[in-house]
Fold each of these.
Amino acid sequence: MKTCHRFDLLKARAERDIRMHKAHAAKHAGERSAKQSSTLAALARQGMAKALSRHYANCPECA
């Protein structure tokens, strides 16, 4: 699958956010903020999938 620069940029930013939330959850295990951060990581992953799918469907360079 060949993708454009914007697709790669969207993916990199989303993956960075997911890593940040997972790292926070691991660092603060057992606390309320860790559970919330884990939830945010899952939501960010779903959001990334939607955004990348939407981009791929509408981008003339990727399709």
Amino acid sequence: MADRTLLMVGTRKGLWIGTSDEARADWEFTGPHFDMEEVYSCLIDTRGDTPRLLVGSSSSWLGPQVWRSDDLGASWQETPNGAIRFPDDTGAKVERVWQLVAGSEDGVVYAGTEPGAVWRSTDRGETFTLERALWDHPHRQEWGAGFGGQAFHTVLPHPTDPRSVTAAISSGGVYQTNDGGESWEAHNHGVKAEFLPEGAQYPEFGQCVHKITRHPSRPERMFMQNHGGVYRSDDHGATWVSIADGLPADFGFPIVVHPHEPDTIYVFPLNGSGGRYPPDGEAGVWRSRNGGDTWERLAQGLPDTFYVAVMRDAMCADDHQRAGIYFGGRNGAVWGSADEGESWSQVVADLPDVMVVRAAAI
């Protein structure tokens, strides 16, 4: 049984690693790892006998790299010339690694990058191969760039079917392969692109999706936080319906599913215009326990005043039996709940701008 908790916090100026016991009341942190490098993605891969940590960092001098550690961050290894590099014939160059996620097969790891591309590794993140059919998709030339750039920030492998992967890009929308990457189809039916002219707001592609999640025990049900809207799909992304009723705002970045309850989800609503901070400047995580039919605000222990955004990968859950929920703000503070969001306490403060938070029981 796992008796420790590991928390990775990636920022605009390095990575911090926190450890605690199962109670998750007291934390010890090391860092910065990769000092002054941007860390937009990290993964705690608990498959196998030894957990592997993966970090997607970007140095202004040396460019992007996927680092790996098999001793919980005590030492790090890199792949010569970078783990992710575009083939010469593409004429493209990786700017950032926005996503690292474990696949459903042993050793498989997926990455999402800027510019918008998805990559697959079969050696636990040491080297990656471009998903070429998605890169060559005829829609790609018309994909836009969100405020943070054009990037695949969601890669969601099917938990039991290794040939099926769902990915999302800002601003291009949702794409899915069910044939092992041989072909990819847009899956945006019902998702509104509110920034387009009236009458053209439900296009085949071009939506600014912020994040997608699902529970492995119910893979056909998926949840999405869009640029404007929160959605659910009950048919593996073929169609989407709004579940935003009851929320104070339908804009936000992260959406997280409970590790043991497939219909329990968490979001962090923000004002969509006039300042990307919580409505009325009041911190609050919102939870639904019925797939988005109803929502409740969870704020016990959070600050009354909070004019801070929480980014798409800066919120997560661990996998303890009583799940912990975490979020990091752009003010450098990370908040955690050891009781599934019922109460909150500050885990660490005064870090740089938080981009990604990942946690696991080890």
Amino acid sequence: MAKTSPGEFFNQVKAEARKVVWPTRQETTTTAIFVGIMMLILAVFFLGIDSLFGAIVRFLLKLA
């Protein structure tokens, strides 16, 4: 592998940075809302699963 000089490295970094396509404000807002809704759904789901398993464990411990 050929060695790259620091100057050439920074030129390559700048060239790659120019290729970056940033999301629009609308895309960012939509994605953030979607992530928030999914977090809420998953939190409620795992609360239900945890409560169910907790009730099962309490029931089994009462049998012992």
Amino acid sequence: MLLKMIPEMNKVSVFMRDRRHVETIIKNMQRAGTSTLQVISDFDMTLTRFAHNGVHCPTTHNVLHSSTLISEECKTKMRDLFAHYYPIEINSSMSEEEKIPHMVEWWTQAHDLLIQQRIRKDQLAQAVRNSGAMLREGYKRFFDVLHQNSVPLLIFSAGVGDILEEVIAGHDIFHPNVRVFSNYMDYDEEGVACAFKGEMIHSFNKREGALQNTQQFIHDRTNVLLLGDTPGDLNMADGVQNLHNILRIGFLNDKVDERMKQYISSYDIVLVKDETLDIPNAILNYITARK
């Protein structure tokens, strides 16, 4: 039945633990209508591509890394941090509790390095244009359908919010229904980055961010489509009150054999090395179709 409803589910990249459960949730959301729906998503490697033509695409942090806004010495240190901490972030044999201190160290050191570079706010748009940052194929349809149906899109990102906003603004999809919760730089009177604002968001504390910022959620929208690419993204909707239905879609981009069991046991739909938004778009198309 699910394949008749949404033929795109037949893609070889699609894996589901319980097809009937997925079908029930999608039907419930369609019956309830778009006025009850909100989409909660990660950004880096979820709405953006993980790779293109075999080359890794930059995250929001890497946009700065690949720019002329930071020194070669800083780039080397950022690469060293990635080489040390990324294997920890994706290590399926470690618990989130074990990973969190390492993630705090990583983000703290990376942010300190960036602030030392005296980055100018007015240079960010050009850095994004030069970076090769890419949204997943189908991004325009995704953002436009949500906008046209007045469905809120809340983006929780452990990346750099200033860069994230430049990416979506540069693609002309920063619609009024989009809200971003991320790590933002603070600027002095001359427009030079001098600090990061507020509480740090890393890969594994988005739940705390969600609970501390429950005003971000639309509380009469009790159905949630959640998109993520790490186990830390699974709890981004914990601030939603009176949740009726949630469908969790996970992008498994890397170390597939090592991580598949963990993803299939926690996400309702797992998309393996799928650089498109075909499945979220197909689900939204079904939900938003006029009855």
